[in-house]
Every structure is written in structure tokens, then in C-alpha cells.
Design goal:
It contains 19 helices and eleven strands. The chain is mainly α. The chain folds into two domains: 40-277 and 395-405 and 497-542, Serine Threonine Protein Phosphatase 5, Tetratricopeptide repeat (Alpha Horseshoe), CATH 1.25.40.390; 286-384, no CATH class. α3 crosses α4.
């Protein structure tokens, strides 16, 4: 993150909000800051990184325990883990409260920045205010797609401690209005100002490039429009989509919007997967989801060796008796066969021995229960690639957080073309999306072009509409690797990958949980939500406060 030290901005924030007088009246002090040296730019960094790289406590609970696993990217439940892979499919108030607390509590970060930069604010700057509007929109899209109805239109109004819960439809419409306002403010401007008024490198999303912010806003508008399209009572999506398609989107020229992480800051202040992986001994060892690994492997996707490491393999023994033990063992062996894993097996009495060739990519089935736990050998499955589980604080490059990708912009345009909404050639747009997706992980041009030209997964020039939409959805799911909230939303919205969306049914193998095997559609509200008297109306409108209640866009 350009080696920005977050602690500096924390000190500046404390200094600014501790002042009760006019900044212009601050006396010149060679040991401190002059009024001419202060700017809202010093308050944007924390608001940005806290949305995509919160402290480790919520990162572990909101991302890894919930969204990233609901997305089918990562798994628990092997014999080296502290938990079964049923964790989060059984409702946990503590883990849910941690997730709710982070997202509900984040609002103050972006509101404070917008209050500083709005007309009449201490650091009035309309272009920084526009950046605040877009950041607020990114936040609310993630927030509502996680829980559904939320306080939105009345949130942050001084003196209103019980804001109403808005429907997801109205939140989407409000986000689009905010994005339109932000893009109108930016216009043709490229910077937020000169000197200290230029947000520059303090902006860890776009480096102060207002035109990239504008493309980010328009691409988010397209995402929301496409997600809302066809939902019950939708009366705005088509217009939003058409408007977005006729304005600049993130593309190959702008690249994706990602957030590089400071490789010096420790895990407690700005978490990364690597820190969680390395912090709890054996309990930190997660594995890769079977559906993800098989999708990459079956289509010779060059991202496979970047996303994951090969399984250790070797000699693995299984011992037990009884019908359920045998059913579980047969299930694991069948999953190896389905993935074309190379191994040999032998049986001696109650002991089955597998010799699994090393160097193979093998995914672990998702949502396994605690009873199968002893059979799920850690060395049998792939783990995340080096860039994903690299610890921070070691001055070694780690993966960037995804804000919104140029790949998704192309995939959304391809989907619109397939649906007959937008112009352009769907296959060309789809291929361009794949190119941008590969760039995120530094795949070579040669490997990228070979994938596009040789793999059916990269070809939507023929087939039914449903077949084309499935391929687009899967590419959106793949490019959202490490962005579990968005990958989870893609599955709920599109129904792909089907193996995830259909849920599970066999209690001998899987954790049916409080969902009774259904795919999770949302997270439950945290315990603080019930104190708002409007909460009961939200439940009456949206449906029961359960993980299986579908949100508006997915109905």
C-alpha cells in the first residue's frame, strides 16, 4: 500500500477531532501542524482499508468463517483443523455478532469523511465528497447483500437513534442515486485539487485518479442493475443498466480497482488471510474447496497453481467399521475419482490404505460434518497458494484486496449482450474479461490466450442462453477468489456453480445445520439490531431472521 503507515493517520484523526476551534486559527508551531498542512486526504485511508481489510477479529469471523466458505473457496473440517466444516451452517450468535458489529459499525468511518468534505465541512472538497459517496455505495452494496433490509435513508441523521429499515430495493435505488451524484460532481476532473488538497497516494483505491473513481462508480452501478434485474417489483434496473452501458466502465486501460496492503503493518490492525492462517497453530490450517479446484483443473485454468498449492499426498490410512464409516470412506474415495486423482489403495482387515501421488491439486468437499472429520486427512487436500497465505510484516508481497475488477465490468457487459440488453459482441467482451481476470494474478499472456482459444469454459459463441450465462457466472465467481462476499452473492443471484447453490442433503456426510441443508441466503442480524423498534417491521417485510430467508435480489 505504498508503505503508508496507518498509525500516522490515526494520530492525525485524533488531532483533528480533538480540536474544537477553527482550523484557520491554529497557531504556527514548528513541532506540530499548520492549518495549511491539514487536509481531508489524511482521513480517507482508514475509511478505505477498514472496509476491505478490517481488524483480524472480524476478518476471521465475517470473511473466513462465513462469506469465503459460503462462496465455496475455502474449507475447514480436516483432521488438522479445530472445527468441522459445518461451522457457520449452524448459527452462532458470537460469530454473527462479530460480523454484524464490523459492518454496522463501519458506517461511522465513511460518514465522518463525508461530513468533513461536504459543503460547509471543515475540509470542504466536492471531489473528495464524491469519493465518499462512492465508498459509501461500495459499503452498502456489501452490507445489504449480506443482511438484506437495513437502516439507510435515515442512517446517520443527527438525533435519530431508531432509523427505519429500508427495503433492499430502495437501498439499491439509493445507491444508484448516490453514484449518479458522485459521477456528476466528478465530471471531467482528474484530481481533487493541488498540493495538500490532492488526495494522491492517501487514496489506496485509485491513487487520486478521479476518472478511475468515476469508472468504478459506473461499474458498481452496472453490477447493482444487473443483480436487481428481474427481481419482484424491479422498476429501475433496466434504466440503470442502459445508462451504465453508455458511460465509461472499468476496462483494460484503467485496470481493476484493488487495494494493496502495507506489508509492514501487523495482523491486528489490517488483517490478511496469511495472518489468520499462521496465528493459531494447527487450527490455522485451511484447505481449498473441491468445487473451486475441480473447476480450475477440469478447464486447465492457468490460475490453478496460483490460487492453490498441490496436496502433500503420500500414504494415508483409514480405520473403522460399520455402515456409516464405510459410506463416509466411499464418499471420500469417490470424490478423488471424480477429480481424476492418481492413487492406489489396499485393504487389510479394518484398515484401508491410500497412496496418493504427490503434486496433485485436490479440493476438499464443502460442508462436511463432524462425524466424517477423522477421515478427512489434511495431507489429502490442496491449501491456498503462497501469495494468499503469506504473513504480513515480513516485507514480502501479499495479494491485494479486490474492490471491483475490470474483469467483472466486461463479464457484466457480456451478460447484458447475451440477454439482449446491451450492444457489443458477447464473446469478445467475455474474452476481454478473462484477460483482465488473469492479469490480477500475473498470468502470462501466452497462457491466457491459450486458455481462451482452447477451453470451452472460455467460449460463449455458441450454446443456449442458460449455458452462456452459466459460463459467465462461473468466471465472475472465479475472479472473486478472496472476495468471498461478492462470490457468495454471485452464487445466490445466478444459481452457479450449481453444486454449491443446490445445498446438501445427506446427514451422514454433510452438516445440514440450522438451514436443514439449504444454501445460506443471508446472515442473521446481530444482537444489537433488535434494540431498534423498527426491527420487527423489517422482519415482517423481509421474512424470518434466518440464514435461509432469500433476499430481494435472489427471489
Amino acid at each position: 500500500m505504498r508503505n503508508i503507515k496507518i498509525t500516522i493517520y490515526s494520530v492525525l484523526m485524533f488531532f483533528a477531532f480533538s480540536c474544537t476551534g477553527d482550523f484557520d486559527e491554529i497557531n504556527t508551531n514548528t513541532q506540530g501542524f499548520e492549518s495549511t498542512e491539514l487536509s481531508a486526504k489524511f482521513f480517507i485511508t482508514e475509511a478505505q482499508y477498514k472496509l476491505y481489510a478490517p481488524d483480524r477479529y472480524p476478518y476471521w469471523r465475517a470473511h473466513l468463517i462465513h462469506a469465503d466458505r459460503f462462496a465455496g473457496h475455502f474449507t475447514f473440517g480436516h483432521n488438522n483443523s479445530w472445527w468441522s466444516d459445518g461451522l457457520a451452517y449452524n448459527y452462532s450468535g458470537g460469530y454473527t455478532d462479530a460480523s454484524w458489529g464490523w459492518l454496522a459499525g463501519y458506517f461511522g468511518n465513511v460518514k465522518s469523511f463525508m461530513d468533513l468534505t461536504k459543503a460547509g465541512g471543515e475540509f470542504e472538497n466536492q471531489y473528495m465528497y464524491a469519493m465518499g459517496l462512492i465508498t459509501k455505495s461500495l459499503y452498502y452494496q456489501m452490507y445489504t447483500d449480506t443482511f438484506g433490509m437495513l437502516p439507510y435513508s435515515e442512517a446517520g441523521i443527527e438525533g435519530n437513534l431508531t432509523p427505519k429499515y429500508d427495503t433492499q430495493k430502495d437501498i439499491y435505488k439509493g445507491i444508484i442515486a448516490d453514484l449518479d451524484e458522485a459521477m456528476s460532481i466528478i465530471g471531467s476532473e482528474t484530481r481533487t485539487g493541488a498540493g495538500v488538497a490532492d488526495v494522491a497516494e492517501n487514496d489506496v483505491y485509485c491513487g487520486g485518479d478521479l476518472q478511475k473513481w468515476k469508472k468504478l462508480a459506473n461499474t458498481l452501478k452496472l453490477r447493482i442493475g444487473m443483480r436487481a434485474l428481474g427481481a419482484t417489483g424491479d422498476d429501475f434496473a433496466s434504466n440503470a443498466i442502459s445508462a451504465a452501458l453508455n458511460a465509461p466502465l472499468l476496462d483494460a486501460g484503467s485496470g481493476s480497482v484493488t487495494m494493496e496492503k502495507d506489508i509492514i503493518i501487523g495482523q491486528w490492525g489490517s488483517a490478511a488471510y496469511g495472518d489468520v492462517w499462521h496465528s493459531f497453530g494447527a487450527g490455522s490450517d485451511w484447505t481449498m474447496g473441491e468445487i473451486l479446484i475441480n473447476e480450475l483443473k477440469n478447464n486447465q485454468d492457468p490460475r490453478l497453481s496460483i490460487y492453490a498449492k498441490p496436496a502433500v499426498g503420500g500414504e494415508l490410512t483409514f480405520e473403522g467399521t460399520g455402515a456409516e464409516y464405510q459410506e463416509r470412506l466411499d464418499f471420500l474415495i469417490a470424490s478423488l475419482d471424480n477429480a481424476n486423482v492418481s492413487y492406489t489403495s489396499s485393504v487389510s482387515g479394518d484398515i484401508t490404505t491410500l497412496n496418493v501421488d504427490p503434486g496433485q491439486y485436490i479440493g476438499q468437499p464443502t460442508r462436511l460434518n463432524g462425524d466424517i472429520y477423522p477421515l478427512v486427512k489434511y495431507d489429502l487436500f490442496s491449501t491456498p497458494g503462497q501469495k494468499i497465505n503469506q504473513k504480513t510484516g515480513e516485507s514480502v508481497s501479499i495479494y491485494p484486496e479486490i474492490i471491483l475488477t475490470s474483469a467483472e465490468a466486461y463479464f457484466l457487459q457480456a451478460e447484458a449482450a447475451v440477454r439482449g440488453i446491451g450492444s457489443g459482441d458477447a464473446q469478445t467482451l467475455f474474452a476481454d474479461g478473462i484477460r483482465e481476470a488473469m492479469k490480477l494474478w500475473e498470468v502470462s499472456d501466452g497462457d491466457t490466450e491459450n486458455y481462451i482459444s482452447s477451453q470451452d469454459a472460455a467460449n460463449i459463441s455458441s450454446g443456449t442462453m442458460d449455458e452462456k450465462l452459466e459460463k459467465i457466472a462461473k468466471q465472475r465467481w472465479l475472479v472473486s477468489y478472496t472476495d468471498g462476499f461478492e462470490a457468495w452473492a454471485v452464487v445466490r443471484d445466478t444459481g452457479y456453480p450449481t453444486e454449491l447453490a443446490q445445498g446438501v442433503s445427506n446427514p451422514v456426510i454433510f452438516e445440514l445445520g440450522t438451514l436443514n441443508g439449504a444454501y445460506p441466503q443471508r446472515m442473521r442480524y446481530g444482537s444489537g439490531a433488535q434494540s431498534n423498534p423498527n426491527f420487527s417491521q423489517a422482519i415482517s417485510t423481509q421474512g424470518p431472521d434466518l440464514q435461509g430467508t432469500k433476499l430481494w435480489f435472489a427471489k
